Each structure stands twice: as C-alpha cells, then as structure tokens.
Amino acid sequence: MTSVLDRPDTTVSAHPGRHHWTSLSEHATVLLLALWWIGPMTARSGGRGPGATFTGLVLAGLALLGTRAWRHVGRVTLGLTVAVPVGALAVCLWAPTGWYGADDLGSYSLAAAAVLVVAAYGRSRQRRTAVLLAVTAAGAVQFLEGFNAWWGGGVDPSRAMVGTFYSWNPFAAFLLPGALIGIVLAAKGPGRARLAGLVAAPLCAAGIVHSSSRATLGLLGLGILASLLVLIEREERARALSRWAAVVALCAVVSFGIAGPPFFAHRGSVTGAAEAKAATGQDVATNSAYRLQFWERAIANVEHRTVLGTGSHALVSGSSRYVPASYAGSNQAHNGYLQPLSDGGLVLGLPFLAAALAAVVLLLRLLLAARRSCAERASRLAVALALGGVMAHSFVDLDWTFPSSLLLAAILVGVALALLPAAARPAPVALAVGLVAVVAVSATAQWRWDDTASDIAERVGTPAAQAHALRAAGDGSLRDDRWAQAVLRIGTAGFGPVIDTGVSHVDLRWAVDATGHEASVDGPTQVLRARALVVLGEPERARSLVNGLIAPLDVAHAQAASDAVAWVLASVGRPAEGRALALRYLTDPVHDTAPGSHLLTLLQIGLQSDARRADVENRCAYALVPPDQRLPNTPDPGAPLAGTPCEAVLRGANS
Length: 655
Prior knowledge:
Layout lengths: L19 H24 L8 H16 L7 H20 L7 H20 L3 H27 L16 H21 L4 H17 L4 H13 L10 H21 L14 H8 L4 H21 L10 H5 L18 H35 L4 H17 L9 H17 L9 H29 L5 H12 L5 H12 L13 H10 L8 H13 L3 H12 L11 H10 L3 H13 L7 H10 L8 H12 L21 H9 L1
Helix pairs in contact: 1-2, 1-5, 2-4, 2-16, 3-4, 3-13, 3-16, 4-15, 4-16, 5-6, 5-7, 5-15, 6-7, 6-8, 6-9, 6-14, 7-9, 8-14, 11-13, 13-14, 13-15, 14-15, 16-17, 17-18, 18-19, 18-20, 19-20, 20-21, 20-22, 21-22, 22-23, 22-24, 23-24, 24-26, 25-26
C-alpha cells in the first residue's frame, strides 16, 4: 500500500535551467482552478449548481496539462487515482440508471485530477504552504457567505448557519479543515502564514459552532486538542503555546460575539442552533436511527446488486424491496464510503475504498514524519488533522455528494503526497492519457446538461414551450431522466383541484415513459409520475404508484413529498387517506418542517377544520408583515415559516 503513496522527490530548484514558461503555466493553471473552487464553484450550492462542475473539469484538465502531473507521481498512484472515475464511468455505461449518474462521474473525475495536480504542483515548501492557505481561504470565504445569509435582518441567532451548501452538516464539514489548518499555522506556521491562520481559524470555528452540526463540533474540539502536538519541539515552545492559546481564545470570542449585538437585537446562546434543532425532534438519537436505516438500505443494495450497484441516485428504489416500508427514505446514504458501494457496486466501490485506505496510510505517515523531523512539522500535522477530520465526518454524512467537498478532500490528499516525497517509477503515458480522456468525457456529459438546462431556464415562454424544449433536449441526450423529470415538474405544477399548465399530453406522457425504469427513480420522482398520470386521466396507474409510497399510513414516510401524495390520493378517489397523510405530517413535530404547506394541502382537498389551523394562519400573517411595519410589542407567534406559501395559505383560509 505504501507504494501508492510514493512520488519522486523533484523540487523546483533541482532544475535551474527549467523554462520560464513552464513554471508560469503551472502557477497560472493551478491558480485558476483554486480561485474557481474557492469562489464561484462552492457558491453554486457546493458545486451542484449549473456549470460549477463542468467549469471545474475544464480548469482541472488545463492544470493537468500545465503541471504535467503524470511526470511527478508514481504509476501505482496514478493508476489508483484513475481507477475511481473509470469505475464511475462504467456505472454510467452499464448500471440501470445510465447517464443519470453523469454528475457523480464529473465529481469523481474532478477529485482525481485535483489529487494529481496538487501532488505535482507542491514540489516546494512555498507551494505547499500556498495550497494550505488556499484551503483556509476557502473556509473563510464560505463562512462569510453563510454569515451574510444567517445574519439577515438580525432577527434570530438560533437559526442554523448553512452557507451556500444549504445544509448545516456539509457546510460545517467544509469549514473544518480551514479551522484546524488555521490553528496550526497560527501557532507554528511559517512567516506570514501565521497571520492568515489567525484570521481564518476563528471565522471557520464560529461557522461550525453556529451550524448546529454536533459531529463537526466534536471533531473540531478533538482537532484543537490534537493540534497541541505541534508544540512538542523544544525550540520556541513557549511562544508557540502562547500563539495557540491566543488563536483558540479568539475562536471562542468570535463564536460568542457574532450571536449578539450589534448583529442581533438580543444575545443568543452559542449553542442555540443545536438546541433549536434538537427541540424539533432532530436529536442525536433520532438522527442516528435514521442514518442506520440509510446504511441498511445501502448494504441491501450491495448484497443484491454487488457488481454494478443500483446506479446513481437510486438508493431508495433499489432497496425498497429489501428493507421495511417504515424506513426513512433518502438517496443519500449519509456515509461517504457506503455511497459509492451502493451506487456503483464493486466496480466503483473497490477503487474508491482502496483510495480511502491509501489516504489513511498517508495520514499515519504524516503523523510519524511530524514526530521524527522538525522540517515542515506544522504543515504535516495540519494536513493530517484536516484530512482525518473530513474522512471521519464523511463516515456519518453526505459531504462527498457535494463536488466542492470531495474536491477539498482531494486537495488534502494531494498536498499530503507532496509532503511525503519518495522515489517512484515514472507512470506510463497510457495512464495519463486515460485520465485526460475520462476528464474529457465527464466534462462533455456535464456540458450536455448544464448548457441546455441554462438555456431553457432562461427561456421566456409558457410552461408548454419550456416542457417541449426540454423534451427535444432529452431525446437522445446523455441524461434523459433529468430532462423528463423537469418536464414532469413543469407539467404538474400546482396543487389546485385541476392542474392545467398547458403542457401537452404528448410531452407529459414522454416524461412518464422516460422515467419508468424502476432502478432509476426515487420516491419524489414516482410522486411526479403519479401526478402526471392523474393529469393524463389514468387514475388506476397513479393509484398503483402511490400505494408503495404510503403503506402503511400510520408510519412516518419521509421519502416522498407528503403534500403531493395526499393530492394524488384525493384525486384518485381516496380523499380520506389523503387527509390522514397530510394531517399526520401537520401534527408530527419531527416532520412538521413546513406546517403552512400541509395546511394548504388540507384546505385544498377538503379538510374544513384543524386544531392547528388558527396557529399556522397566525404565523403566516405575522411573517408577511415587514419587520419595520409591525406594531410595537406585537408578540411573535413563532418562527417565520421559511419556504412556506403563506399567501396561498391565507387565500385558502379565506376561500
């Protein structure tokens, strides 16, 4: 396994006659990739937004060529790195979901390229330090993005900070390396890197504290204690200890300070976000139980589709026949190691797990090297702590389903390779060509989706025109399922007694047929298909689809949109079951994330009275009044119903 971690010890100064333009191309291409990752890519929903991964792949391809990465890593390292995206490509070619997994292919390809680019680029201490500073900068920028939205109007400091990931756990996990690397650099980093660490660490730590992510907060605490290892050398021990204490104290001060004036009208608890989440039923025990159910789904998929898995985004549909119907539904396994096994079986799972094991070996070697040698001790320890933190957190959450987070882990692996140089046999050109080819295929698949999707999203026209354009794009496209899903969403928009968006039945039926493969659809897609079948006048087929999503009715079923299922039930002659389903979600404190939406559904399908109706209407009315127009001393009836159609609720209440 150690051969996987070997790379030649070539340095920038070892070749004084090197051409100036070669060095310039390395700096320029790596800088472009880093800037894209730190800013626009991560700002687009953690890399999930249109164009984010595609542009990253283009820049990564340029960086591969600019650094000539295949010249600076061993053949085993390159072979293992290439094997992961090749496995993802095999899943797209042969798994039931087909090119529906092109986004996963792009994410794995981007991460593989980043490992090699960073390992090849970091051939000097200055370059390796620059990479670490880029990681801290990414964390600081993401904190500022999250803080701006979290602070908002300064109403409630107990809200969770989610950043541009729009999910607290992946947001916090993205900040963790910045916090740990920043603390180590501030205590014992080289030169001006100490100042960068002193700035970035408190910001990243504050974001983690106010994200409500308990696992990340625990890892941060362990990492802070482990960072004391940087002080074991006798030289300047007292000064390093004072710097460590200062930056840790500053982390606490910033975390406490941003939860009160002048940012908020009143001071909130530092742990207010975590306490508020626990109050809604999302305590550690409940969330742990859900994760065990997700893991059981993934394991069931591996057992029954061992070689190729179920395909991308098919965790629920693939496992539905093998686990109890009461299990929570999510196509994310909430485990970065089970996810590739479930999606791609052994073809994708084995190379990914081998790469993860190699990363663990790297981590241990970094710790041993930091203990034995004073050279770059701070950098080695910082990378080891950061890499260990992201790998541990990904064991219990969905971090690596965000391309930006998987790219972050890849960067840490790359700089770890650069910190542990060793002699290695040059890699064959065939492997390099294979990697570039996979990156090119991945970029093509991303472009086919992103380019047309953006064009259609900006199209000014009726829903019927948009749906027809989506159908035209989907015919023969690499990602038929996604085009068809978009047609379903447009053609079934609304919850009124009659859905009439103007979308032709021909286009809508095409979308239903294109999403009919059992292994390629999940619960929400089945709901969309059922709604479309109601519109098409086929209630029997609609009824058969929702039967598997709601049985048994007395058990909370998180996999499907309960409002849509209730509407379908009411539309196919089962209004009592629809009302029961919506009412259960309305009164369930764990799943009641949008009570106004559920109330609206109840009003539309005929429920005339409900114990919580007045409460929800009152909260909606309060939320619609601008803060500067509210009467003095008006009691706040509860947290505003973010994302709830309050206007529609009040219209329904008055109709």
